[in-house]
Amino acid sequence: MVKAMIDVEVVYAAVDRQMLFGVSVPPGLTVREVVRRSGVAEEFPELNLAECPIGIFGKVVSDPQSRLARAGDRIEIYRPLLADPKEVRRLRAAKAAEARSRNQ
Question: PANTHER family in the record, alphabetically (predicted)?
Fold first, then answer.
């Protein structure tokens, strides 16, 4: 008896390159397990798959260990942020305010 498979995509963008992995897996696997089986760890050995944030179609999955993958999912592996975006905006605004006060 042939088991039905589902097709999903796993994507990861490193600083210097990006890859899309088309994966056929049996239904009932979690998102984290699909990522593990995708082969992304072999292409990006520096990636810690156990701790990377994961999303589906741009929305972070809060619990990838329990969320089941569905046919057609685009599973995205996110890199850690190098800087907090709120802090960067705050510093930029402070710098602009300082520049304006010097020009007056």
Answer: UPF0125 PROTEIN RATB (PTHR37483)
